[in-house]
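Re: that chain you flagged

S.,

Sorry for the slow reply, it's been a week of failed gels. I finally had a moment to sit down with the sequence you sent. For the record, here it is as I used it:
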Amino acid sequence: MNFFNYHGRLSKIAACFSLVAGSLVSLPTAAQDAPKERAMLVLDGSGSMWGQIDGISKIEIARNEISQMLTSWDDRIDLGLMTYGHRTKGDCNDIELILQPQPVNASTFQTAVNAVSPKGKTPLSSAVLQAAQHMRFTEEKATVLLLSDGLETCEADPCALASALEAQGVDFTAHVIGFDITDKEAKQLSCLAENTGGRFFLAGNSGELTKALKETVKTIAVSEPAPAPAPVVVAQPAPEPEPAGPQGIRAVAKLCETCEPLTDGPFWYLMEPKMDINGKRKEIARNGKAQPVMEPGAGDYRLGVSYGSAYADADVTVLPGQLTSAEINLNAGHLRISAEAAPGGTALDDKMF
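Prediction finished late last night. Pasting the structure tokens below so you have them in one place:
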């Protein structure tokens, strides 16, 4: 699938926008106003959203939690709404832009969300692409928030799309909330977020969905405009400080103490350090990269890694403003067995049981 068949049209739009922007440079009020950030909520309207959690359909839970999100939405961010699979069954082109990014009117937005009635397939890749195109992602900063309960079902690769959007976008980011999904589905959806520099959240019930939406809103929120620069004073230039690294965890896995770090295959789990009454830890995030940098808040965590059938975990503490290296030894390997008819003989190549 060619995800950029609208590139020519976007180029013309970019040219027109450049002319308009050029004419605004001389206006002092335009120069002083900071541009508003824009985001698009892409809501899964596929038939599986009628599935239930504790007797309540997932679409009903999503409607309720989106309503809560709107009450605390940052008014500096324009928000739009797009959905898919809500009008016809079996149609991979069933994608609709319902609201262009605009200042949020909670009542209007919620009415539009409540009207989404799940029916069809899950063309989530095309929906994310169309959302990016509507926000002119090749010219301006654009953010997509995808809420989905399953895999792409229209023969597209979300991971490849994410890489292409990130490469062509000025500043494009996709944040993804996987709602009541399997491990396989989590790997595909997390890739869409990771390849665009976004965040991936797992939500298995209404409370977790509330938390995921709140965290996403915090992530999307624009920063305050920078103050006007002070007058330049001619002086001996000081050396530039080394850039600070991200706060979080740099994770590395090995099969043995002296082995080289794994570069393919590990899958990571970030969990709360304490177990619940059932002896389980609450999962915070997942990551399918071999050596990821995970950026949780400061605090104590349990970091787990799986590689094939091998699994190991360890306690990790994230300090404020610091990047902590975490190396986990899986103590795993491969066992090769051969049989001989007599000691010192040639290894048998027949099938053995």
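What I noticed first: Confidence is low (pLDDT under 50) at residues 1-32, 222-235.

Talk soon,
D.
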